[in-house]
Amino acid sequence: MEDYLEDHTADELLSDEDKKQQVIDDIAFKPPRASKGDAAATTAVGKKVAEIKAEMAKLPEDEDDEEEERPAKKAKSKGNQLELCARAMKVYSKMKNDDLKDVLRWNGQILAGTKDVMLLKCIDGHVNGRLGRLVHFVPCVLLTQFYAFAC
After folding, report:
1. What are the start-end ranges of the H helices in the chain?
2. What is d(CA 30, CA 33) in angstroms, rounded to the nearest whole number?
3. What pLDDT, in 10s, does the model give residues 66-110?
């Protein structure tokens, strides 16, 4: 198959050979693929995970992962959101994908995504509590001996 380039512009942009070659080069140019570490930092999920990992590095090392007796109610002023996420990251970052999927399955969440996506879902559930289950409304009719109910 032969490559060709047609000019359908009003000012005939491709009549100049330099401009024509520049357009061909621009079409043929493929940006270099980012390495695995660089790709994670360019996506929104990768940026959020990197931000939480940086905060996790600031946490003191001698602190135990398990807390003493938990109070009946959480104090809202205890730590900022990023610090709470970093503490949760300590718990979930050591887990494998299958373990993260078990946590998500147990909380009724979607299991799809990369490890970073599943990790953020687990951290979000740990910090903010799990999401409620969606109740699908299915119209039905319940017939009893004396009454008919529509539910």
Report:
1. 17-28, 36-42, 44-58, 81-92, 97-106, 115-128
2. 9
3. 555 555 655 555 568 888 999 999 999 999 999 999 998 888 888
Contact between 123 and 55 (Cβ < 8 Å): no
pLDDT higher than threshold 90 for residue 3: no
Per-residue model confidence (pLDDT) at position 100: 92
Tell me the mean pLDDT in the region 39-51. 79
Cβ neighbours of residue 7 closer than 8 Å, sequence gap 6 or more = 13, 14, 15
Angle in degrees, CA 53, 58, 64, rounded to 5: 95
Separation of alpha carbons 31 and 108, rounded Å? 40
What are the domain boundaries of the chain? 44-60+80-130
Pairing of strands 141-143, 148-150: antiparallel
Name the band, by pLDDT with cuts 50, 70 and 90, for residue 146: low
User: For tokens 């940086």, what's the residue?
Assistant: 54
Task: Determine the residue type at 142.
Answer: L
Reduced to 3 states (helix: H, G, I; strand: E, B; else coil), residue 58 is helix
